[in-house]
Amino acid sequence: KNIAVFVSGNGSNCENIIRHFAHSEDARVSLILSNRQDAYALTRAQKHGISTEVVSKEFFSTHDKIIPLLEKYDTDFIILAGFLLIIPDFLIKKYNRHIINIHPSLLPKFGGKGMYGMNVHRAVKEADEKETGITVHYVNEECDGGEIIAQFKTPLTGSESAEDIAEMIHKLEKTHYPTVIENIIKNTQY
Ligand code: GRF
């Protein structure tokens, strides 16, 4: 199976996924797609010799532009890893249960519009949560509202800064996201 990873920024998850699937018999990363030319994820992809494409918001939202591009890379699964554009409905329909996202909180808490990156960790801190974590979910029409596949938690003492929480979350993501993706790919019937 071929995986396209969609990114907008740093790309640490993207790189973990590339590394993980370099040794997998079930799938390979065939494309890194970014809506930002300056995403560091693109540098990481090139280092691993993975094809990259940069697309505008307009290109991404146009059926007859984005679908042929994904087909060019024989895309079976779309993995979101810090991708900040909304996924258009036609893509969600075409790739039903084949688009997976990771969110850096225990959804449904701290999800939805505006809840991304450090905003999430600051909100978790302000709410004085006793735990936080990550959620891997299918992508549907509702922002952060798709069916939950897996969650992993980490306790909070209250003394962590938002930056500390971000680091804890990245560790959880590194440990779990690639393996959860691999299990989904293995267990998905066509
Ligand atoms: C991750 O925390 C992920 O949960 C969220 O965006 C962040 C991306 O980080 N969706 P990176 O670009 O993979 O370093």
UniProtKB/TrEMBL annotation:
EC number: 2.1.2.2
Occurrences of domain Formyl transferase N-terminal (ranges): 1-181
Binding residues annotated for (6R)-10-formyltetrahydrofolate, in chain numbering: N101
Any one GO molecular-function label of the UniProt entry: phosphoribosylglycinamide formyltransferase activity
Presence of keyword Transferase: yes
InterPro entries to which the protein is assigned, alphabetical: Formyl_transf_N, Formyl_transf_N_sf, GART
UniProt entry keywords in alphabetical sequence: Purine biosynthesis, Transferase
Site location (Raises pKa of active site His): D144
Signal peptide range in chain numbering: none
Pathway: Purine metabolism; IMP biosynthesis via de novo pathway; N(2)-formyl-N(1)-(5-phospho-D-ribosyl)glycinamide from N(1)-(5-phospho-D-ribosyl)glycinamide (10-formyl THF route): step 1/1
The protein's name: Phosphoribosylglycinamide formyltransferase
Organism: Xylanibacter caecicola
